Amino acid sequence: MYLSTISRPTTEPTEGQPRRRRLIAISANVFALGAVSLVTDISSEMVSAVLPLYLVLGLQLSPMAYGVIDGVYTGATAVLRLVGGYLADRFRGRKVMAGIGYGISAVAKLGLLAAGRSVTGIGLVIAADRMGKGLRTAPRDALITLSTPPEALGRAFGVHRMMDSFGAFLGPLVALGVLAAAGGSYDAVFVTSFCVAVLGVVLLVLFVRDRHDPGPSPVRAVRPREALTLLHTRPVRRLALAACLLGLATIGDGFVFLLLQRREELSIVWFPLLAVGTSLAYLLLAAPMGALADLVGRVRVLIGGYTALVLAYLLLFGPLGGWPMLVLTLGLYGLFYAATDGVLMALAGPVLPERLRTTGIALIQTGQALAYLVSSVLFGAAWQVWGPAVASRIAAAAVVLAIIATVFLLLRPAAEELPA
User: Fold this and answer.
1) DSSP secondary structure letter of residue 230
2) pLDDT digits (tens, 9 = 90+) for 350-403
3) Membrane spanning segments where (predicted)?
4) What dihedral do alpha carbons 23, 216, 141, 152 form, nearest 10°?
5) C-alpha–C-alpha distance, residues 364 and 353, integer Å
């Protein structure tokens, strides 16, 4: 079991006595949720690793049209995140809601068999898959916060994201293996992806346990009006605003990989391995970044992650080229995810009440997803109008502005309100 050491005295030390440190174990529930995410990400990444190339080069979509689809891929189900979070809190069934989401995503994989080369069909399948993700994400993250002491949340989310990213690392490799074994049949990839996704649902049912606050159970169900009052709390409002600004400055993975492929004129065969490189860096760094966040401050690590993103964007059309540029860019991109994804949710957990925990997490994720939708469309338009080099530099400048805003929103009041 993964153990993390935290600076928390078990008793108040007298003068001259050393402070004792206590070992806190990451709970089995976190590992079970990590296993579910690992298997599900293998399924998802088998499909998504080749999707940008297929849409842009295979179906000849323009950068702006791809930006719309890429934004829909993450942002169109934003409202469903709120629905899933609210229902999970109202009926105190976070595991059930997460299971419904995982199940919908699994069934959606079979829809790719029927979609063929139809852009409309592919869009509908993507929408169904993201519907499942929208329903499951907030309940899953809420279960992690309820299965972990507040002082170890960074480590818990780091371990979960490490396992999640291992699945993302394996997914493209499994897809390439299936394609090689099946003579290039994409239908074989889709069927295999469905079978792997079903395994993830089975793991959730068998090994994940629902969790509730150890205090007294609420005597009445959560009402919509209560959920709306979350933004009346200054720490939640500031965190949600910072998440929106950071989401607005972030472009999609597909754009980054397409820019790298065009810059270095990579063979189509190598394209899925760009996602593998990012996932490998994420895999290696997720747990250390989570531990570092608990040690030096979660807001500081979050800002450091977005600083890595600025450098990655600048490298896309910088003086460095060849394999050194590819390795450095993918490494920085993986570092960005490792230092931001779970860390943001670790920041959210302590400032949200238990009975509204899932709704609050969904609220923050929804704001970021909607901002991301706008960002993808704007970046696609900038690429089409001014070219990819100018568009990527504008994106880097936008991230810098978002970092400055985040410092004012989160770091300055951190001592009073946020567990930085």
Assistant:
1) G
2) 888 877 787 788 888 888 888 888 888 899 889 989 999 999 999 999 999 999
3) 23-44, 64-88, 165-182, 188-208, 239-260, 266-287, 299-317, 323-348, 369-386, 392-411
4) -20
5) 14
Judge whether residue 166 has pLDDT over 80. yes
Question: What's the mean pLDDT when you consider all of the chain?
Answer: 81
Total-model pTM: 0.72
Could you write out the DSSP letters of every residue in 263-322? HHT--GGGTHHHHHHHHHHHHHHHHHHHHHHHHH-HHHHHHHHHHHHHHHHHHTTSS--H
Domains of the chain with CATH codes: 22-212+223-411 (1.20.1250.20)
What is the pLDDT confidence band of residue 241, given thresholds at 50, 70 and 90? Answer: very high
Band of residue 20 on the pLDDT scale cut at 50, 70, 90 = very low
Rounded Cα gap, residues 67 and 384, in angstroms: 10
Q: In the Cβ-directed half-sphere of 11, how many Cα atoms lie within 13 Å?
A: 5
* H helical segments located in 182-230: 186-207, 224-228
- Kindly report the backbone phi and psi dihedral angles of residue 152, in degrees, each rounded to the nearest multiple of 5, phi listed first: -115, 15
Find all residues with CB under 8 Å of 76, minimum gap 6, and list them: 127, 130, 373
